[in-house]
Amino acid sequence: MTGAYYPVAGCGENRMSGSEREGWEAIPSSTPNNLGLCPTPGVAYLTATTGALSGVMISASHNPPEDNGIKFFGADGSKLSQTLQDAIEAALRGHPDITTSHSPWGRHYHRPELIDRYIESLTTSSQGQLQGMRIVLDLAWGAAVPVAPVLFRAIGAEVICIHDRADGDRINVNCGSTHLEALQAAVKEYNADLGFAFDGDADRAIAVDNQGRPVNGDYILYLWGQTLRQAQQLPANTIVSTIMANLGFQRAWERQGGQLIRTPVGDRYVQAEMVKTGAMLGGEQSGHVLCRHYSVTGDGPLTALHLATLVAASGVTLSELVDRSFHTYPQLLRNVRVEDRQTRLNWQQCQPLQRAIDRASQALGDSGRVLVRASGTEPVIRVMVEADSPDLTSLWAENLVLAVQQHLA
After folding, report:
1. Do 141 and 166 meet the contact criterion of CB atoms below 8 Å apart?
2. What would the DSSP string read from start to end of 325-348?
3. Which DSSP state fits 86?
């Protein structure tokens, strides 16, 4: 299941029109409101703008259906702190009968029409038009289905959709932002100007240019950052990204007088750093992009819309914009399955693996870097190696994968 939304509704009359207020006044403030299928950023937006006390999203995010989880949002639309999330999880684990206990509560109101307000906010966030552009959308059988096609057609694009029916059994499976092959083939087949792939809950987007090449979050941040800087809307020319951001991106941005701040992997860390530093643009290589001019959280449809209008306004193709930007260092990411949760979370205590990491780091020196971390969403250890030589990248990635398999898996 994905896209289920249960915000605790507050009155919020001062933020609503008269007709909207009339409907909400009849709903008790303690009663959840169910949006049904809705992108995660839609949950965040509506939580923040309807006076709700909180928002909850049931979603596997970019992962397969069996990895469903829950995302919590505070009244301002931002994700709850990790400390508070851990406290909620601990409380739930301490009460195993909580899901089966009977109580006088359990009513909710079905409010799918509120999604139209989210779509309208996206449409009005961009001044550009997309007439004459043909765009392919991979909706990943997920939460982008009721939003992205409507949005792009409203701005004038010709839209071709794939994986365009909501299907919880197939969401993210060989499609969407983590599996671009179908989108790449469709962009070429339909001679499209570009394409976008969303993940299951639509809080991230990856682009494909007119030649069928992937355009990840690093390029999106670079191109959007240039546009905001030219409009004098990028404080201190700062972009916030994570430790996964490519060295090629960082060095190209710094050559233009910009600053790239890195955080741990995870949008909540990016968002926290943006709030701390006053940065307005940040995100992840995976396509999770936050622009505080328009949104309180990562938003796939919003990201796709602004990149598309940026391309339209440039007068050239996305492939030309990418070729003019920067060249990435070869980067190889491998996932090694480690079933035991405690072993996975305490991987840094494995001395043989630490020695293998030290050897790789010393061998690469300034020409590359190594990153090993436990996934926050899957039972895997992620190994990333980046170097100026593909052969070195492959050599040390395989060396570290072997070390994880031998000593942890």
Report:
1. yes
2. H--PPPEEEEEEE---HHHHHTGG
3. H
Neighbouring-strand partners of residue 8: 32, 54
111-115 — which CB contacts under 8 Å span 24+ positions?
A: 111/33, 111/34, 111/35, 112/35, 112/36, 112/37, 112/38, 114/33, 114/35, 114/46, 114/50, 115/35, 115/38, 115/42, 115/146, 115/147
The Cα 356–Cα 259 span in angstroms is: 31
3-state DSSP call for residue 191? coil
CA–CA dist 379, 17 (Å, integer): 46
185-225, pLDDT tens digit by residue? Answer: 999 999 999 999 999 999 999 999 999 999 999 999 999 99
Rounded to 5°, angle at Cα 285 from 301 and 3? 40
* Residue 392, phi then psi, degrees to nearest 5: -65, -40
Buried-exposed string 86-117: b where 16+ CB fall within 10 A, e elsewhere: eeeeeeeeeeeeeeeeeeeeeeeeebeebbee
Give per-residue pLDDT as tens, 371-385: 999 987 789 999 999
User: Do 79 and 54 form a contact (C-beta atoms < 8 A)?
Assistant: no
pLDDT, tens digit, 9 for 90 and up, residues 55-90: 989 888 888 888 888 888 999 998 888 888 888 888
- Tokens standing for 406? 């031998």
pTM, full prediction? 0.83
Crossing angle between the packed helical segments 247-255 and 217-230, to the nearest 10 degrees = 10
Length of the chain: 409
For residue 359, CA distances in Å to 2, 363, 399 come to 43, 6, 10
The domains of the chain, with CATH numbers, are 4-111 (no CATH), 117-213 (3.40.120.10), 215-299+309-325 (3.40.120.10), 331-407 (3.30.310.50)
User: Active-site residue among 17, 19, 29, 61?
Assistant: 61
61 is annotated as an active-site residue: yes
Indicate the SS3 state at residue 312: helix
Asked if 277 and 238 count as a contact pair (C-beta separation under 8 A), the reply is yes
Residue 331 identity (one-letter amino acid):
Q
